[in-house]
Amino acid sequence: MSKLLPVRGTHDIIGEDFRLQNYVIKSALTVAETFGYEPIETPIFESTDVYQRTLGETSDIVNKEMYTFKDKGGDSLTLRPEGTAGIARAVISGGLQDNTPLKWYYSGPMFRHERPQKGRLRQFHQFGAELIGVADPAADVEVISMATEFLRNLGLLSEVKLQLNTLGDFQSRKTYRESLINYFSDFKDNLSEESQVRLTRNPLRILDSKDSNDKEIVSGAPSFHNFLTPEADSFFKNMCSGLDNLGIEYLSNPYLVRGLDYYCHTTFEFISDKLGAQGTLLAGGRYDGLIPMMGGQSIPGVGWAAGIERICMLTQMPTEEPRAICVIGLGEPGEKEAAKIALRLRRSKFKVDLIYKGGLKRGLRRANKIGAVAAILLGENELTNNNVTVRNLDNGSQTEVSLSELDSHLAVYESAKLVAE
Ligand code: ATP
Ligand code: MG
To answer: If you take atom 21 of ligand 1, which residue's CA is the nearest one?
Structure first.
């Protein structure tokens, strides 16, 4: 049989990597809870329609990246490429439109068929937050503030820059679109093939092009800020002053358009310069058109999603894992007693590694390998005396302790305890 490998762009997350990922997610949900948000989990697959219509026919996701398949009943399903569309669907399906504002956070795997590279996977994880039902720019300020606190708690705030832009309202986008078509038409033959297609279908997306030639042409393009309606302009200014009020620093980037069609007004990204082209750690924006586009009431929303893998690449765990205590029973009666002692210590929150058959030597080898602090040995002698031998694995000293005094003797190994949640 040929060697079995994980599917390209997916990976197994084991041990320390898993702990780091959990730590990052836990930090995020703690922050979200302090903002008064509630957890939500939507299914990992949805009807293809949920994404097809809403993300936009010209978006990278719909065009090239969706894992779409027919199930045994012939329905077209798609593995979720992002969280917001499913959540908008949940608002409508659950009849929650009259319960706004809805303040939600979520976390889980997402699937996109793109070219795998560092920080770009086919199955990756996002943590996200959505504030649904508030049209005021104060909502944008709140979700950005939550993202800022999340990154601050991980020690990443000094590593990232918040970039900000506005995509205005429908009217602003209409006039801007025309001026972009005018501008880019003059350079049509020099644009990348992809951008030539975008020119008629969605010229705004040219601003987001990664092609270096396109980028040069984009640098001379008219700025959206000159095409904003007075309402859209004042929305943006209010939002910026809300950020100033909280001391949140940002840079205005008039070419930040984001890949999805459902965005309007605010768009933002927290970007690090340490991860090359995969430097966006967290991105979001306002999506007032999304729920009505899906056939729901006209309910506005704003939110963001963070790429957990990219954040993990920059994050250090603040505390070391506790070291285990190994319990080694010798012979059948010793093993039985060892299992009972292991359970007793586990109930006191010690991290315990129970050694199975193989004798003292193998047991101690395993204890050293996993970096245990101490080994508890139970041989025939110990059993007859109702004792155990505790060996300190850092200095090799051994003490025989009666079973009833074991707990107090182990007090020196407090560092082997898991911190209670
Ligand atoms: P990019 O421009 O890097 O493709 P995007 O605009 O497609 O990102 P979003 O849809 O905004 O990304 O997703 C939010 C975040 O999720 C991104 O900022 C990134 O941190 C993370 N992310 C997106 N796609 C991937 C992927 N394929 N692998 C790992 N993380 C990803
Ligand atoms: Mg992408």
So the answer is: 307
pTM: 0.92
- pLDDT tens column, 31-47: 999 999 999 999 999 99
d(C-alpha 93, C-alpha 145), whole Å: 29
Residues 6+ away with beta carbon under 8 Å from 247: none
Distance 415 CA to ligand 2 centre (A): 43
Q: Is the dihedral of CA 81, 85, 91, 93 positive or negative?
A: negative
Q: pLDDT tens digit string along 134-179?
A: 999 999 999 999 999 999 999 999 999 999 999 999 888 889 989 9
Q: How far is CA 391 from the centre of its chain?
A: 42
Contact predicate 133/100, CB 8 Å: yes
Given this model, what pLDDT does residue 357 score?
A: 79
The confidence score (pLDDT) of residue 3 equals 86
Closest ligand to residue 311's CA: 1
The architecture that CATH gives domain 325-416 is 3-Layer(aba) Sandwich (3.40)
Mean pLDDT of 196-212: 86
| pLDDT surpassing 60 at residue 64 | yes
Q: Packing angle between helix 170-185 and helix 193-201, nearest 10 degrees?
A: 140
CA distances (Å), origin 91, targets 44, 45, 284, 316: 16, 16, 19, 36
CA-284 nearest atom, ligand 1:
11
> So where are the chain's domains?
16-169+229-312, 325-416
What CATH number does domain 16-169+229-312 carry, 3.30.930.10, 3.40.50.300, 3.40.190.10, 3.30.70.2740?
Answer: 3.30.930.10
Residue 1: the pLDDT is 60
Please list every protein residue whose CB sits less than 6 Å from any atom of ligand 1: 82, 112, 114, 119-121, 124, 126, 259, 278, 280-283, 305, 307, 309-310
- pLDDT for position 55: 81
Q: According to the model, what pLDDT value does residue 259 have?
A: 66
Q: Which atom of ligand 1 is nearest to the CA of 282?
A: 18
Question: 29 alpha carbon to ligand 1 midpoint, in Å?
Answer: 19
CA-nearest residue, atom 26 of ligand 1:
120
User: pLDDT tens digit string along 292-337?
Assistant: 989 999 999 999 999 999 999 999 998 888 999 999 999 999 999 9
